[in-house]
Amino acid sequence: MRGKKGSGKSDIGGRESRNNPWADGADIVAGLERQPSGIWGPGFRKEGAGESERRTDVDSKTGRRRSGLPVVGVLYGGPSAEREVSLASGDAVASALARAGFDVRRLEMRDEDVGGLVGGSGADVAFLALHGEFGEDGQVQAILERIGIPYTGSPPAASANAMDKHAAKRLFVAAGIPTPPWILADRPRAAREVLESGFVPPLVVKPVGAGSSIGVTIVRRAEDLEPAIGKALEVSRPALIETFIAGREFTVGVLDDERGCPQALPPIELVVSRDFYDYTAKYSDEGGTRYICPADTGEEITERLQATALAAHRVLGCRHMSRTDIRMDRSGGLWVLEVNTIPGFTSHSLLPKAAMAAGITFEELCARLVRLALAAAGARKRKVGGRRVVTGG
What we know:
Layout: H1 25-34, E1 44-47, E2 52-55, E3 71-77, H2 83-100, E4 103-109, H3 114-119, E5 125-128, H4 139-147, H5 156-163, H6 165-174, E6 182-185, H7 191-196, E7 203-207, E8 217-219, H8 225-233, E9 239-243, E10 247-256, E11 262-264, E12 268-271, H9 279-283, E13 290-292, H10 299-316, E14 321-329, E15 334-340, H11 350-357, H12 362-383
Helix pairs in contact: 1-12, 2-12
C-alpha cells in the first residue's frame, strides 16, 4: 500500500499565424464583438457526413469566413473509458456551436496524433469535449499549448491536479477546504491494512484518476473491501478509499463571466434511487435520478455551497468552467469530493442544467467558452509584446 491517511477535517501554458488573418485570438474576439446580434441565428448546412458544419457566409472559393467568425474544432472521443460520454458531449457541442453561428469541425479522436488532427483541421480554437484519461489529465492541453492552439477549459497543471483525486485532496486540505479522510491502496490485499488504519465501512472506493463513477463502489461490509479495491485498480492505479459521508449530494458549476471572472452557478441536488450516483444514474434514462435545480436549500446553504465550489475551483487553478461534487452531512457540514474540469455536455449533464437555471442557454454556454478561450489567447499574446505568436489557451 502507498500513501498515507489524508486529513478531511471540517475546519475549515506558440503558434504562428499560419498566414491566416483569423488565426490570432485577439483579432477573432474583436471580430465577434463587431458582429450584429443577428449573426447568432440559424442557417447552416452539414457537410461530409457530419464532419464539418459551416455557415453559409463562408466563401466557397477561398474557404475564408466573410463574417470573421473563428473555425472551432470540437475534439471528442478519445481513448478513455468515458469515450461514449465524450462522443455524446462532442455531438451536442458541435451542433450547438453551429446553431450559434460558428464554423465547426468535428474532430473525433481515435488513435490519431492529436496535434496533427487539430493542427491540420484549420481550427482557430479547440473546444475540448474529451472526458477522462488524456482529455482531462493535462495531456491534450499540453499538446495544444505546444502547437499554439487556444482551447477551452483549464490549463495542464490544473487539469492534472483535478484528475488525480489524491493530488486534489491534498490541495483542498492545504487550503482548508473540507474533504473526506482518505487512504491509497495499490493492491487488493491492502484491504486489511486499510481497515487496520482506522477506516471502517461505509467507505467509497474509486480509481484515483477516472470519472463518470467508473470503477466506484460503496463498501458497506469489511469483506467487500478487497474486491472493491481490485475493481478500482482495473481502471487506474492506485485505488483511493475515503470515508462515506451520509447525507445529501450536490454539484455546483462554476463558469467564468465574459471578463474571465469565475462565477458560481445555482447548485443542483441529486436525488438518486440507486445505491449512489453511478454511471447508470448519470447517463441512463433508467437511472431514476431526480435533479433539483436550483437546489431547495435556502439562501445560507446555497451561498455556502457556491463559496465552497469557488474555493475548490481556485485552489486547483481551474479556468473557464468546472463542476464540484459536494456532500452535505447530517449536521450541515460540506465536504468536497472532487472537481471536474471538463464536465459532461450531454442531455443529462449538470453544468448545462445549472447554466440554464442561470438564464444561459446551451448555445450561449458553448459560445461563451469559445470566446473565453480566444480572449485568453489574445491576452497572452499581448503580454509577450504583440508578436503574432500565442502560447496556448
